[in-house]
Amino acid sequence: MSFTLKQARYFVGAAEFGTISRAAVELSVSQSAVTEAIKDLEARLGVRLFERRRRGIELTHDGHVFLRHAKAILTEVSNAQINLSSRESAVSGVLNLGVTSLTAGYVLSDLLSRFRRAQPNIDTRAIEDTGDYLEHLLVGGELDIGIMVVTNLRNHHALHSEILVVSPYRLWLPLGHRLGSKQSIAVEDLAEERLILLDVDEMQAESMRLLDVFVQKPTVAFKTRSVEAVRSLVASGAGVALLPDLVYRPWSLEGERIESRDVSGQLPVVQVGLVWRRGASISSTTRAFISVAQSFHAPRLR
């Protein structure tokens, strides 16, 4: 029943990107390599990991179970590499880190876990606040570094940023929605839909840009600051949502399935990155954090 790390990596890539073709592009391998890896993996495990759909692939229940294990395995391998490579460059001290609510929920935990394994002697102290206030603290030197949406960064003259994650917007649908069976979905197809809008601090500008792409303004059925509320409302059929792929998860808290689809049109893109004060000397603790973060890819589940 043994399988290789390459097979696990190809499986996770296919699960994350939802199609064999896109996974192959992102992994820089052929489609046949991904297909054969998954086929051999299913044979070795004795279960079906994916259901094949017209628009791509979808994880089975066994696929979701194995995905958690596969991601844990790959994370541990990555952590081992980081620990071994950083052993000679271990530093100590304090790192003052700022995060927004979005990055705290969907980027921080995995990145911080990797950093603590790589640099166990660094005392990391994190605070969560709005993007504007974190910029103020960074400019004032009260924070060493921030993890935030850099698309709306205001103090470009005073702050330097480095992008970690680029997340396009996708459509969230309840299971069985009429748009779920369409070969391609355009912004115009959403004109009659009721929209569930996420209204958290760092997403407000993106929400305004999102509404601007509609020729006919959609009906906003509900505004909320909770991503979990969006998931529950969409899953229950109260409306559809357009949100960054970064925050997509396939199940609501009630255990109802949520589907995700690409939409053609000029939808905004969210960029999450590191931010630190421009021109300031970078401490050894900050430099160590940047080094770990540069090899970071935010986890996503389909």
What are the defining features of this structure?
seven-stranded mixed β-sheet; globular; alpha/beta; 302 residues; 11 strands; two-stranded antiparallel ribbon; disordered C terminus
Commentary on this structure:
β1 (50-53) and β2 form a beta hairpin. By secondary structure, the protein is α/β, with parallel strands linked by helices. It has 9 helices and 11 strands. The strands form 3 sheets. Strands 3, 4, 5, 6, 9, 10 and 11 form a 7-stranded mixed beta sheet that branches. Strands 1-2 form a two-stranded antiparallel ribbon. The chain is globular and about 55 Å long. The model is unreliable at 298-302 (pLDDT under 50). 32% of the residues are buried.
How would you summarize this macromolecular structure in one to three sentences?
The chain is α/β, with parallel strands linked by helices and 302 residues long.
